Amino acid sequence: MVMGFCSTTFLFLVLSIAFSPTSVSSSPIQLSYSDHCASILPESTPTRPEFTTSRLTGFSAGYFTFGTTILDQNSSSLSSGFSNSLRFRTRSLHATQTKGVYKVEARLILSSDGTYYYGEDLDRWRPSFPRLEGFWSESSGKLCMVGVGFVSSNGTKLRLPAVLKLSNVKNSSYITDLVTGTLESLDSSDDSSSFDPISIFFIPVMNYKYSLSSSSTGCAVPETPSLRTDSMNSICSLLSSEQFELEYPHNCDPSRNCSPFGGNIGYLPQFISIRDVHCSEDEDKLHVMVKFQNNRYDYYRTFNPSTTLIAEGSWTGDRLCLVACRILTDGDSLADARIGDCSIGLSLTFPEILSIRNRSSVVGEIWSSKTVNETGFFGKIVFRSLRNRIPGIPGQRYEYTEIQRAGKLLLKKKPAEKKGETYPNGYPSDMQYDMSVRSSRHEMGWAYLQLITLGDKFNDPYVQHLNSMEESSVAVAIESRTMNVSYRITLTLNPDVKFGDIIPVSSNFSIVQTEVEISAEGIYDAKTGFLCMVGCRKLSSSHQTYSSDSMDCEILVNLQFPPLNSKNRRDIKGSMESTREKSDALYFEHLDLSAYSFYGARQSIWRMDFEVIMALISHTLSCVFVGLQIFYVKKHSKVLPSVSLLMLVVLTLGYMIPLVLNIEAFFLGSHDWQNGMLESRGWLKAHEVIVRVATMVVFLLQFRLLHLTWAAKLREGHPKGSWAAEKRVLYLALPSYIAGCLIALFFNRRNNEYGDAGSSYSFPDYQQHSIWGNLRSYAGLVLDGFLFPQILLNIFSSSTEKALSHSFYVGTTFVRLLPHTYDLYRAHNSAISVNGSYIYANPGADFYSTAWDVIIPCGGLLFCAIIFLQQRFGGRCIVPKRFRELETYEKIPAVSCESDS
User: Fold this and answer.
1) Could you tell me the pTM of the whole model?
2) Minimal CA–CA distance to 618: which of 694, 506, 561, 553?
3) Mean per-residue pLDDT over the chain, rounded
4) What residues contact 880, with CB distance under 8 A and at least 6 apart?
């Protein structure tokens, strides 16, 4: 009955909040088409539905400029951090009495991906027009529609009556065609939902006809062997998800002739991405959008016509040849956008051979067909894919060129072989990691080591085995014990960390980091677990041509993997160093690498299963002990006013806060990537849900006990004495809690400033030294001492009541102290832990260490003993005798005065 009442109340509150009415009325607004569109396209009577909407679905990419008020952006903000793309979807199409005129119903969404924006509600940046109605003329290409949209602003949903006007909407299109128009508000300018006209343009794809692909010139034969393929679909799917880095010639002038846009855009683009790829179904042709970017993270950001090309071309068997055109505009508006200057050529090939100096699986060129003296000419630009290998194009192979150097270094540095120890044998899940980076001056960062090849086989990053590797090949590699390997190492260095010739970016914000990519290859010895590699990195100058002279290959990388069968916790250790002289500009100091060996997670699975069982046992015991206390107070209702409200609030919050903070994990099962290997087995997510449910049950029972105590105190015949004692408890306990919190923050700051120089840096340590981590641990300490408010209440009220049942205060103390006993065992006997894999006795949720695991249980047992003595001999039995006599003496005059009166 208790459970039913609590669960019903909780569910009612959740549903009330979730489905509370909005501030906007649902009454429709009727808009007249004739009032706003008759001058563009007269209204006509519909006759029959068109069962196919293919006439009006040929819009590819759509973009808009921002209007003010509803978007809080002005129309010139083309360089902001939002994606100003839009989607137009035809819902229905009807023929009318006028030939070639159709009645259209459609949906328009001005989308903002919000990928790089975290400040406010993202719905605010997604105005939606779910139902626009109007007419379209196939012959003139004019389209006019009216409708009401919605946008959320500061929690209020605003209505946006608007008219959409488009031109050049035709049933066939060429590369030189663009659909342009405006979206205009129908509200008065003084209305809060009014917005300035939003200019729009689409790239049409309806019955697309290729007109420039056959005229491409300058598409030279590749200098190196390239792969041939007849699969046009594979090429299209690969290009649509790829980014490329640009490399400019030495002699270009950034202010004039480096890029297709000259110096007009104010910067020199560093990357390009190919978007909106459309392939011809009956011939090897395609048309695309080529977007130039200042950094690799601009992929989803605002569309800028000044740095975008529209291109079409064809695949010739071993290369893709394209002709590209600029998008021309007058000012910031897209309503007058047009295509012009189709003098730009692009080519793209798939090199057959990859190496440490050429890891790009896609290579291309961009050039101008104009002469040097013509306006708009620029030098030839080379672009290369960022990914080392793109699956789907078979035939690529890797050529090792630094193996001899690595072999000589391996003989000098590898440790002696130890009998009985086994090491990783070449499977990717055991050989690629996130690693911490530390220099002698404690400058820290991160490195991700991605396995590219093992022997002559490529590693598919999306599958945990080597691509096309047969079992026999694995057996041969294991038998040989020495394997050629290649890696891609991505260094992410913290601000102000110098690395060779790279100048760190200075900023007031700590999130600005330096990223360095290193290609490495070498030899792995499976007998000793030692990996020795030679690394190469591209020099930082953005104006150098890609060649052997523009790379620093004097880098040595060593890694020592711990044994698979090790019983003790051992991490992966390694180093990265420059073999150059210290006076060399490219020299960098010695870096230490370290990481958890995640193949230890195999041994952690048993531990995590055990921790799930421990968590369920603890929550079950908590349910039993709280339930026994509820039955106890129902049987002895006189003791309820003597129970500390603050104690029950602390316990209730202890179960409620984890439920609130983990609501996403409870319903969505979101976890960090390091748990993906374990969650793929399917058991971790299910068990976590069971633990959350058990926590919910304990919370409801604890809340019921709190409710009973509160109600009893309100019904008490002499409430002043009880509430006065409660206030005195609060006045003493609250400052004590705050003081403890400040002490925790002080030690957090001290640890961050004067961290132990001798300890290796690791991600879990960093989490525990964060402010939030210390506050969370301190909250766990408060829960461990949950009896503290009850002890104070017994003292202030001089209570002789047995307010708490022995099963409740002893049992709950046992449940709180059991994790510390287990942590002592785990610290000395457990397998290596996967970061974030703690189900029970999470180090981030309490103070866990050898010292704390002894101090906290001793404190908990002391509190239990005090409660036992207080309930047997009186609340002040632990107070010195003279203070007890003083309190008694102070009460006598009050009694005598009442008798005299």
Assistant:
1) 0.61
2) 694
3) 76
4) none
